[in-house]
Known about the structure:
The structure holds 2 protein chains of 2 kinds.
Chain A: H1 2-13, H2 18-25, H3 28-52, H4 56-79, H5 89-111, H6 117-139, H7 147-151, E1 162-168, E2 173-175, E3 184-188, H8 191-194, E4 205-209, E5 213-215, H9 217-222, E6 231-236, H10 239-255, H11 257-265, H12 267-272, H13 277-299, H14 303-318, H15 322-347, H16 351-369, H17 375-401, H18 407-410, H19 416-420, H20 424-436, E7 440-443, E8 446-449, H21 451-466
Antiparallel strand pairs in A: 1-6, 2-5, 3-4, 7-8
Chain B: H1 3-28, H2 35-60, H3 66-85, H4 89-113, H5 118-143, H6 146-149, H7 153-156, H8 164-183, H9 185-193, H10 195-200, H11 205-227, H12 229-246, H13 250-274, H14 280-298, H15 304-317
Amino acid sequence: MQGIERLLIELLLKFTTAEQLNAFFGNPRYVALLIGALVAVATALGGVFLVLRKQAMTADAISHSVLFGIVAMFLAMLALGQKPDLSAPLLLAGAAAAGVGTVVLTELIERSKLVKNDAALGLVFPFLFALAVILVTRYIPNVHLDADSVMVGEIGVAWANANSHCLANCALVTITADDPRARIARRCVNCAAEGISPRDPRAIFEEYCSNCGTFSAAEAWQRRLISAPPELVFIPRALMPLSLAALANLLFVLIFYKELKLASFDPDLAAAFGFKPALLSYSLLTLVSLTAVAAFDAVGAILVVAFFVIPAAAAYLLTERLWQMLAIAPALSVAASWLGYEVARLLDISIAAAMVSLLFAFFVLIWLLSPCHGLLSALIRRERQRRLFTEQLLLAHLYNHQRTAEAESESARRTLHEHLNWTSVKTARCLARLRARGLVDFEADRVRLTARGEALVLAFRAELMAR
Amino acid sequence: MSPEDRRVWRFIGAVALCMALSVPLSMALGVQYDYTLTHVALGGALLGALCGMAGTFAVLRGQSLIGDTLSHAALPGVALAFLLFGREPLALLLGAAATGGLGILLVNWLSSTTRLKQDAAMGIVLAAFFAIGVALLSYIQGRADARQAGLDKFIFGQAAAIIARDVVILGAACLLIGALLLAFWKEFKLLTFDPDFARVNGLPTGWLNGLLSTLIVIVCVIGLQLAGVILMVGLLIAPAVAARQWTRRLEQMIVLAMLFGAFSGGSGAVLSALERGLPTGPLMIAVACGLVLVALLFAPQRGVLWQLRQRRRLRGEV
């Protein structure tokens, strides 16, 4: 991880200076927005496929069992005598393994045909979570399993949790007694032992070096041993795992686009083509687990589910095309995380929760207003259909009776609604619409089809017959 | 009553006897049933029995994860009730029930009006409601002393803090829900196994569905404070899944689920009292999952071992 960070810094320094980098990464707003955007992109891409494959709740399960993986690896590292660090690669790997393990275990239980899929999922992840809580309270009593850090994450203080990288003046400084910088002092050798004051004539003195030793560049600068301070760049610790997760998701989707598309919509056909949908599915879920772990620090275990599911679901309501979904979902998610940050600062509430709340607000808006799958467009479509149907019914009624003996009574304006068994209001409205379009005409007390109205009825009939 | 039924009833009787005997047995092994532990164990057992009742229907209707959605969706209700009415336990319960119910309605509405499937709808509602709840909680904590609010226990649960009043509430809920289930037994049974036939026969399926969902909401909301958001779903599902393996009849399944639930709840409490620092809620889940494992392996006619034996016998015959 450190090596990759180093590479990234060297790349960035080609375009900017170290001061600018430090100013950027030391700014809580920029860092929170950057990390929010990375979480949004990394999760939304995988989320699209989760939603399409009806595995949204699997994401929920994975994000919970990840905790078990983290705790188990934490304990394993303690047992091996290593100093456990919450961002160590081993810890991340263990957490991702727990996520995939959840899926494998669920499928094992499901394959026994004794338990349905959703029940199997609902057994596995609470069990792993319970195990994690027991392990934490039993063996790691000093680490307070804080509700906030598990559920909400710490995106607001991500900037403060940083790794430092030294660029120049980094050499270790070693001072020996013959160095010109060595500070030579005198001390009394036998004062303490004999209980005499240093002024006593019996006191024996020796010279010694008070600042000899090896110092890191930063320590050396603090002790004024070097003339120029070391040049340091601070990189937020959460940045690298999240960037890698975003990159991995992006590459996975780009490289396996065709395979993923086919396996998501028609797994049988994909299998027949030799695409190995099971392998693809496991790779996807491994990636989801890794992404969930990387995002865990920033937005917490439960809220990360929202980043997986909500943007993808919103995009699903907006478009029919997979590539459009893959473009809309991250864009929506990035926008929501940016706005969410501003709202959270304004109201002084949890940043990750505000991001998700805005994401949900976006989703509700799209649900209402989406042109193809929205509630409003469905309502309008249904109303239009209803109108069309009443109009055609009325026109057909007039047409059927227009040259018959009972034409007089069947098309009387006052009593027309009785024949159709409608309310008089509905009939009057329908008539007014038809008259405005020149399809019917009023003749004294009678309703008469115009030539255009008759042509319309005939055309409609022909169309029905053709069907 | 067929011989198979009779056998299962005898098995249920044996299970009940074993579980009843586990109390004196644990006493003999040195568990001290003091005032606190008695209440916690009794409360846990009642909660388990409640979960068994509600979980049976949730599992059979293919809505196992609804408990997960519901318990997450209850959080904003708790926070809102706290903002409006302060630390009034009844208000908190009602608030939780209100947004939990709203969450379920929204899941049904989303999956019926859009092309999103139920799992996506549940994921959306679960995470979004929880986020709104967390946002409200962070607002409350910004205003008042967080300790004073003490709403954190809704996330992880505090089974060890069950007091006499909780036991009374749990007992009353058990009686109420038991009575409702008995009153609408025939209807619920039909609704669970053949909803289309129920509708064709003129049963008010909308109302009955709502009633059944309300029962699950009540159980989840009561359990939430004791077991916590995440473990609630496990406690709802595990006893029912375990019970399902031993029987093919609804009445047997629900009795067995109640027994398994009560045993998990009670023994979880007792186990956590054995040593300091063992959390009660997770131990209840662990026991319940142990019961599921036993059922999956050893249940006659369905269990994994039985299937293996059957396969070997068939191979022998061939």
